Amino acid sequence: MSTKPIITKDEMLQHWLAHRGLTRKAIEKFPEKELFEFSIGGMRTFADLAKELLAIAVPGLKAIATNEAEPFNPGSSIQTKAALLQHWDEATPKITEYFNQIPEERFHEKFKLFGEYELTIINHILYFIDNEIHHRGQGYVYLRALQIEPPFFWDRY
Amino acid sequence: MSTKPIITKDEMLQHWLAHRGLTRKAIEKFPEKELFEFSIGGMRTFADLAKELLAIAVPGLKAIATNEAEPFNPGSSIQTKAALLQHWDEATPKITEYFNQIPEERFHEKFKLFGEYELTIINHILYFIDNEIHHRGQGYVYLRALQIEPPFFWDRY
C-alpha cells in the first residue's frame, strides 16, 4: 500500500484560498445596491450568502482548532460592499492560522460543529469549500440575470 | 513530518460520488420541459450543464487513466430526462473504474487534458468536482425561480 497523499494539508488550504480569491472577485462584480438587494426566487442576496460563508470559515476552523463548541451565528452588521470585502480579507490570515493549527492526524476525527453537525474534520472542511462554491455559483446566476459577466470559473490558478 | 493523508484516494472518490448523487436529485427535481428549456440571463439550461458534467467526468478520467489526449466533446444527443438520468447512472461505475486505475503516485503529475488544460491530476479531479458543485448551485437557482424546492445541500452523507 502506498501512503503517498493525493493532496497535502497545505495544498487543500491553498485550494480553498484560491476559491476564496474567486469568490472575492464575484463580490466585486456586484453593484453595491444589487449585492444587498437583488435575489431570485425568494433566495438570499449574494451579500447574505457571503456573510454565511464568513460565519462558517473562521468560526468553524477556530472551533475545530481549539476544540470549542460555539453555536452558529450568521448575524452580521455588514452593510456595504467595502465592509464585506474588508471582512473577507481579514478572514484570510485567520483561516490560514487556524487551518495550520489542525494536525493531519485529526482530519479523520469526528467533530460536532456549532453544537450540531457531526462529521469528520476533513468532511467539515470539504463542506466549507463546497458550500462556498455552491453559493458562488448561485451568485453567478444573479450576475448573469443582472447582465454582468461573472469572473472566469478557472481564474484561480 | 507526518505522512498521514488528510484524505485518501478512495475518500476523494466517495466524496465525488456523493456529490453526483445530489446532482442526480437536482436533475430529478426539474420538470421535463424546464430541464431542457428553462434558463436565466442567457445561461445554458440545466440539461446542458449536466451534459457538460457528463462530457467531463468519464472522458476526463479515462484520458488521465489511459494517458490519452482526446479533444473535449460536449455534444450529446440526450433529449429526455430519463435518458439524462440513464447516462448519469451509466457514468457512475465508469468513474469508479477509471478513478481507481490512477495510482496515488500520479496525482501530482501534470497532465494536459482535452489537449488544452495543463494541471496536476489532483487539480483536474478537484476541478471536475468543483465544476459540478458550481453548476448544480446554478441549477438550484433555476429550481427556486421555478418555485421548486431543491434537494438539501447536505443530503450526501
TrEMBL record, chains A, B:
<comment type="similarity">
    <text>Belongs to the DinB family.</text>
</comment>
<dbReference type="GO" id="GO:0046872">
    <property type="term" value="F:metal ion binding"/>
</dbReference>
<dbReference type="InterPro" id="IPR034660">
    <property type="entry name" value="DinB/YfiT-like"/>
</dbReference>
<dbReference type="InterPro" id="IPR007837">
    <property type="entry name" value="DinB"/>
</dbReference>
<dbReference type="Pfam" id="PF05163">
    <property type="entry name" value="DinB"/>
</dbReference>
<protein>
    <submittedName>
        <fullName>Uncharacterized damage-inducible protein DinB (Forms a four-helix bundle)</fullName>
    </submittedName>
</protein>
<keyword id="KW-0479">Metal-binding</keyword>
<feature type="binding site">
    <location>
        <position position="135"/>
    </location>
    <ligand>
        <name>a divalent metal cation</name>
    </ligand>
</feature>
